Amino acid sequence: MIIEDIDEGKAFDWGKASKDYAKYRDIYPQEYYDYILKLGLCRDGQKVLDIGTGTGVLPRNMYKYGAVWTGTDIAENQIQQAKELSEKAGMNIEFFTAKAEDVSFPDNTFDVITACQCIWYFDHNITSKTFANMLNPDGKFLILYMGWLPYEDKIAGKSEEIILKHNPSWSSYGDKVQPVWVPDQYMDTFDLISQEQFRIDIPFTREGWHGRMRACRGVGASMSPEALAAWDEEHMRMLVENAPEEFLVKHYISIAELKVKK
Prior knowledge:
This protein is of the alpha/beta class. The protein is built from eight helices and seven strands, in the order H-H-E-H-E-H-E-E-H-E-H-E-H-H-E. It has helices at about 20-25, 30-40, 55-60, 75-90, 125-135, 155-165, 205-215, 225-240; strands at about 45-50, 70-75, 95, 110-115, 135-150, 190-205, 245-260. It starts with 17 loop residues before the first helix and ends with a strand.
C-alpha cells in the first residue's frame, strides 16, 4: 500500500507483519470494550462489519457479547490469521479479504460498522457513502483508536527514536492525547454524536512490547530485512537497559461515534 501523505509515500504491507500482529497486537484493555458496550453497540444480535479488521482483534474479543460479526482487511495474510484464531476459539465470524473501498453489501445490512486503527487508509470520498448505505437508518459508525504517549512515557519515547533511526520516513510518531480523526467527508453522510478520549496504562513484558512495536507500520510492515534485523537488536538492547521484565506503557483511547444522517 502506498499513500502519499503517510510515511512520505513509502510502501507498507501489513501482511509482512501478520504473525507478529496476531501474537502481539491483542492488547486492548477491558475498558476499551466496556466503552463500546456502554454505547449499546456491538452486542445482542446486532450485525457488525469491522473494516480493516487485521487479525480480527475487535470481533474476536467482543464475540461473547452476542453480535454477529463480519471482518474485512486488505491484507490476505491478516485475514488468514484472523480465520485461524477465530476457528481455534470456536467462533463463527465471517472474514474476507477486500479493500475498504471495494466492500459491498446491500443497503441496510448492518447495525454497526467499526474502523479500528485504520481510518487513515481509506478513500473517504468512497467509503463515507458506501458505509452509510450499508448501515440501517439508525446505524452507527465507530472510529476507534489507541495510541502510546511518547512524550509522557520514557520507553515509548525511546522506541520511537529507534524506529525513526532505522526508518526516517515513518510519520506516526509524536502522538498526544487528542480526538480521533473524523474526516470531513463523513459529515455529509453521518452526524457526529459522541467523541471521547481517556488515558490508560497497558501492561507489557519486554518481549510483548518489542513484538508490539515490530508489528507497527514503521517496522515490520515497511522495513527491509536488513533494517529490521538492526532495529530488532537495538530495540531489544534498549529494553534490557531501560525496562524491567514487566512494565506499564502510557496510552490513550479515543473513540468517535457517528450516526447515519436522516
